[in-house]
Design brief:
Length: 225
């Protein structure tokens, strides 16, 4: 209603939201709740009781599963302490989730997985190659530094000679050093180019103008190739 002018009143907004499937309101900074108008919408027949029950059922089912209505002593989440954070069990689960969610778009001539790296030279370049600050998306929790593995740090655990060049220090990549990148990739057996956007370029309420790589990143890629 306020930002996109899709609706004109709180009552109309409540009706549109509930009928579209929304069952939880987040009205940060607003004095009044939109969903407080649901009873009036119900009385007017703009929302049916069946629809309202359909919206409430999964909401309260989730809250029950989280133990929100149980005494704290009965809630297993209340017993979780700081020792559970970054525990080996959770880190292994996170690693498994990352491996299973990777998407490989192309693997010509079986380039991956990398094998027989002993004595080989790897080059890792780009603004995302060794900058922990840009690896996390919007709303992401940032772990302790010792648990953050940048591409460069991860590759250095392999039995290979790893060279590195950022080329540009931040995702916007306004200042770019071609010589730095060309020097790092010269004579490398495998080159990994780490590019992207990050929260410096796009977040909630901060959209990109286009889908192109920011700044000189495309040029960096072409020079590496």
């Amino acid at each position: 209603m306020l930002g996109h002018h899709y609706t004109r009143t709180f009552l109309e907004t409540a009706v549109a939201s509930v009928n579209a499937g929304c069952n939880l309101e987040l009205s940060y900074g607003m004095k009044n709740n939109v969903f407080m108008h649901i009873p009036k919408a119900l009385a007017m027949g703009n929302i049916t009781l069946e629809t309202l029950r359909d919206r409430l059922r999964p909401l309260f089912y989730t809250r029950l599963r989280l133990g929100e209505f149980d005494p704290p002593a009965m809630n297993p989440y209340s017993a979780l302490g700081l020792s559970a954070v970054q525990s080996p069990e959770h880190r292994n689960l996170s690693l498994e989730a990352a491996i299973k969610s990777f998407v490989l778009l192309k693997n010509e001539q079986g380039t991956l997985p990398l094998r027989d790296l002993l004595g080989k030279r790897l080059a890792v370049v780009g603004p995302f190659a060794d900058n922990p600050q840009v690896l996390f998306g919007d709303y992401a929790p940032v772990p302790e530094p010792q648990y953050i593995y940048t591409p460069r740090r991860g590759l250095q655990v392999l039995a290979a000679n790893v060279s590195f060049a950022a080329g540009c220090r931040e995702p916007q990549c306004q200042r770019y050093s071609r010589a730095e990148v060309e020097d790092a990739v010269q004579g490398a057996d495998v080159v990994l180019v780490c590019l992207g956007t990050g929260i410096d370029v796009e977040t909630e309420a901060k959209d990109r103008r286009d889908l192109s790589l920011p700044g000189h990143q495309l040029e960096l890629l072409q020079d590496a190739v």
